[in-house]
Design a protein that fits this description.
A hairpin with a 6-residue loop joins strand 9 (about 165) and strand 10 (about 170-175). A 6-stranded mixed β-sheet has the order 1-4-5-6-7-8, with no helix packed on it. It is an alpha/beta fold. The protein contains 10 helices and 13 strands.
Length: about 260
Amino acid sequence: MSVNVARRMWALDSPTFTLDSGLLMFGLSGTISIPMPAFLIEHPKGLVLFDTGMAPEGMRDPVETYGEQIAGLINLQATEDQQIDRQLQQLGYRLDDVTHVVASHLHFDHAGAHHLFPNAVFYVGQGEFAYALAPDPIGVFAYATEQVRRIQGLNWRTVPGIDVDIFGDGSLVIMPMPGHTPGNLSLRVRLASRTFVLAGDAVHLRAALEAEYPTPFDHDSQAALATLRRLKRIRESEDATIWITHDPEDFAALGHAPTCYE
């Protein structure tokens, strides 16, 4: 197999949640404001999204969409220009240009806008749909059942517990990283300039990765710990940058659209 590279990658501009930091890592106190970017990757064979962020209706009215309890928990800050359709337009793309969507998992802050891409091929981790429709009590708050049901009829391909090379050239490889949810996925992106691993919610903060602390509301803490250790091995063996979706320091340091990596 010849190894190729993707052309460009953007982290899309992101709304933020401001919430109790103890939800993200044991031992923390106070509040933290976290981003939730989706990522857009341009490849010679297609245009790929890693996650789609929040549903447009949830960004406009979180109380109506998610209820007062969840809206009060997340304290959403969002603008209309941060909706994913607007973001793509700002970069010169249409919704129909997107050919593939990798769902890191189906939490409402990652999978809310999947329905805007009915012609794309979607990838989901093994067991994720079943869990999203009947989650454990500790994780039920993070799924929006109606949003999950409305995307069930999309063109889904299940990632069966092994790495999946989207285009067969090593540039975009989906990696199962279970623990946070049963089907959590990460995506390795090889560009000419550097290699990234988009972690999804395999880990929420860089401090948790270094300390090997699973997130308090993970589905399976033992699996989550194995995933953290796998991420660190990949970082070392492939000289890869682990991009932690919700880490505000990563988002500030690594930048977002219109800045891109090539």
